[in-house]
Amino acid sequence: MITAIVHIDTEAARIPEVAAVVADLPGVSEVYSVTGGVDLVAMVRVREHEELADVIADRISKVRGVVRTQTFIAFRTYSRHDLDQAFALGLDD
Question: Domain range for residue 83?
Fold first, then answer.
């Protein structure tokens, strides 16, 4: 699984609409409205590297209200939450 973190700049008045449309796109697992230098952050998860262009360049970038995107490809995941789930036996503490 390939994970990409996509920073999305939008027209200010269209942030909620853009977020809703992007969240419904195949390959997009989550969309966050954030503070800082970008308006939205989308998590894209695909099986093949080539699928990134389909999701990001061909779909996200063409959503009405998207001004620009910047994509970061994840090499590894470091998440305590994921590790705890991987080693959980299903027993209550």
Answer: 2-87
| Residue 73, in any domain of the structure | yes
In the chain, what is the greatest distance between 2 CA atoms, to the nearest angstrom?
A: 48
Residues 5-37: tens digit of each pLDDT: 999 999 999 999 999 999 999 999 999 999 999
Full-model pTM:
0.83
Number of domains in the chain: 1
Return the residue matching tokens 């853009």: 18
Show the CA angle centred on residue 81, arms to residues 77 and 49, nearest 5°.
30
Q: Which residues contact 73 (CB under 8 A, 6 or more apart)?
A: 2, 3, 4, 52
Residues 6+ apart with CB under 8 A from 47: 1, 2
What CATH number is associated with residue 68? 3.30.70.920
Residue type, 3: T
